[in-house]
Specification:
Helix content is 72%, strand content 2%. It is mainly α. The protein has a two-stranded antiparallel ribbon. Helix 3 crosses helix 6, helix 12 crosses helix 13 and helix 16 packs antiparallel against helix 17. The radius of gyration is 27 Å and the shape is globular. The N terminus and C terminus are likely disordered.
Length: 625
């Protein structure tokens, strides 16, 4: 089938699908529009009003858009009075994923850290719940070829802007970019290797559209996207990515050969890119030298746990918490407790790794064997459906988009297995999986159940309860996230005032406001630091009487102790919180305050206990007696 026939076929299928849609209403359209906004805005989103301009703001944008889309979809179900649910283990696996992560919170070492963390971590209950809802919505809202095609097109535009912004920053002295792109590896995706993973995804997507969709009106646009994404890929030059992408392209090349049954495939875009990728894989050091020789100054060194060290930590955790692990988002504390003792004699003895060598393997420690098995169940079902689709080739655009979605989801999940790419890649893994299942429903690979929601019987009553519960859950989620984001904003402002050496009272007020809206140990520790500085300044003053100094000293010391206790209570497994409390007492030990030295030593000992295999002196220095 040539490109003109495919274009005509696509238009016919889109028209037919628009006639077949049942239950489509304005709320569904609005929910889908939010997903279009999601695909365009999330890769580009950055706001310099929090301490983490990229990761934190992307995560909160994703949370809000997912909740708004979900609420609109729920209202659409109320309006139509029915729901078509897929007869699929994919939906079951999403539900199980949320349930297991919820169960893991109950037994977590740090429930508040496991629930949502700072907000941008992949692996918290909040991020897994958001991913599950995003996959569900993608599956329910994109059971139509035209909608999926439009989403991909919008995603391509966003990706091109990401690459253009990066290259413009590299080769331009325009001051606006220097304020935002403050290092050679800074980009709009997040981590440098995550930027490479995103680039690899766009390389594949542009290749796939050029090879099997072949829209004539988009050919130049797709070639430009391919070139930009490959240049970014070469710039990152990530060894794991070259290996994964080369294997991935070989599989895709084999699929194209079977699909087209023509030797012309050896002269296709895919074969050219595959040869270049294999060259980059074999000549990676040479590529790095060429980048340096070309005057492109990329200063990037990433330290992450080895596979052997990761596995040692996992085994130790499972020996104590086999079923549900140590708790979502707690690999950091697993690492501190069970890391290989040999690392204590290296430069990396005090590095706090938040994940292991691979994100999904980190979940084996965080969510135990149950969490890991649920993810295997999810990925196993996706692979089964994908191979089923590949074994039944078709020439329609809908089928081609189905295969593209499957390969994209598989690529992202593989990168989550062999690397820990962060929130953005994690959430897109769910979305591409949902797009794949949505198209599988359209193609008949997955059947649907038709449910009337509000019948005059017991099931109708249950439906009403569930709908009201979900709506309340969505509204509560918006309120909860708004509080957390306002706290992050207040903390950033307070930290800026503190670092500028400004008014300590003003900085304390802002950070205290953050802690009251979102009781995070990180906020409380910062308040401890502020009050320690206030103590130092107070003791050096010569312009106040002894009584005034005593009164102010007691107030500041009382606040510092109170903040340190709040940090330790909010997250007792983090040794930094006990160190913060110990430092308060250590600071006043020279003043011969009764019990201060003993309290400092006790709290240092408590912190030491959180590091099972570290020496007290290495961590904190000798406490004063």
């Amino acid at each position: 089938m040539n490109s003109e026939e495919i274009t005509i076929s696509f238009k016919k299928e889109a028209a037919e699908e628009s006639k077949k849609k049942v239950g489509e209403n304005i709320f569904d359209k609005a929910a889908r529009t939010i997903f279009y906004i999601f695909g365009f805005l999330l890769p580009l989103w950055v706001l310099p009003i929090t301490i983490f301009p990229l990761e934190l703001n992307k995560a909160y944008l994703a949370y809000f858009l997912i909740i708004f889309s979900f609420l609109l979809w729920l209202v659409g179900r109320v309006k139509t009075n029915f729901i078509n649910l897929p007869k699929s283990f994919f939906l079951i696996s999403l539900v199980l994923l949320v349930l297991v992560w919820g169960l893991a919170i109950i037994f977590s070492q740090s429930p508040h850290f496991s629930f949502s963390g700072m907000g941008y971590e992949a692996g918290t209950f909040a991020s897994v719940l958001a991913g599950a809802i995003a996959a569900f919505l993608a599956m329910m809202l994109f059971q139509n070829t035209a909608h999926v095609f439009k989403w991909f097109f919008i995603f391509f535009i966003s990706a091109d802007l990401v690459f253009i912004a990066k290259f413009f920053q590299m080769f331009s002295d325009f001051p606006f970019w220097k304020e935002i792109f403050n290092s050679s590896t800074f980009n709009l995706i997040g981590g440098w290797n995550s930027f490479g993973i995103f680039s690899g995804l766009i390389v594949f997507l542009s290749l796939a559209f050029l090879e099997i969709i072949k829209p004539k009106s988009m050919k130049f646009f797709l070639i430009m996207t391919l070139v930009l994404s490959f240049l970014a890929l070469g710039l990152v030059n990530f060894n794991v990515l070259w290996w994964v992408l080369s294997v991935f392209l070989i599989v895709f090349f084999s699929y194209l050969f079977v699909l087209k049954k023509s030797a012309r495939i050896f002269f296709s875009w895919t074969s050219i890119v595959l040869i270049i990728v294999l060259f980059f894989l074999l000549a990676q050091p040479l590529v790095a030298k060429f980048i340096s020789f070309a005057g492109i100054n990329i200063n990037f060194l990433e330290v992450r746990p080895s596979w052997s060290a990761t596995w040692e930590v996992i085994k130790s955790v499972l020996s104590e918490h086999f079923l549900v692990g140590s708790g979502p988002n707690t690999f950091l504390y697993d690492w501190l407790a069970f890391k290989p003792a040999s690392l204590n004699n290296t430069l990396f003895w005090d590095v706090r790794f938040t994940s292991g060598a691979g994100l999904l393997f980190s979940f084996l420690a965080e969510a135990g064997i149950l969490g890991f098995l649920v993810f295997l169940f999810l990925l196993g079902f996706l692979l089964r459906r994908g191979f089923q689709a590949i074994s039944r080739p078709d020439s329609s655009v809908a089928y081609h988009l189905l295969i593209i979605s499957f390969f994209s989801a598989a690529y992202l999940w593989i990168m989550n297995i062999f690397y820990a790419p962060g929130f953005l890649i994690f959430i897109f893994s769910f979305i591409f999986s949902g797009l794949f299942i949505g198209l599988a429903i359209e193609q008949g690979f997955v059947k649907k159940y038709h449910f009337l929601l509000f019948k005059n019987n017991a099931s109708g009553f249950i439906s009403v309860i569930l709908m009201i519960s979900f709506l309340l859950f969505g509204v509560a989620g918006v309120f909860y996230l708004s509080q957390k984001y306002f706290a992050a904003y207040s903390f950033s402002r307070g930290l800026a005032v503190f670092n500028a050496g400004g008014n300590l009272a003003e900085a304390e007020t802002m950070i205290l406001r953050a802690a009251k809206f979102d009781s995070r140990d990180h906020y409380w520790r910062s308040l401890v630091e502020i009050n320690l500085v206030k103590l130092q300044r107070l003791l050096s003053r010569q312009d106040i009487t002894g009584d005034e100094m005593t009164a102010q000293f007691q107030n500041v010391l009382s606040d510092a102790i109170k903040y340190g206790q709040a940090a330790a209570q909010s997250n007792p497994i983090d040794p930094f919180n006990w160190v913060a409390l110990a430092r308060v007492y250590e600071a006043v030990t020279p003043l011969k305050i009764s019990g201060a030295a003993e309290a400092a030593n006790n709290f240092y000992e408590e912190a030491k206990n959180r590091y099972h295999r570290r020496r007290h002196g290495q961590l904190y220095g000798a406490s004063r007696s």
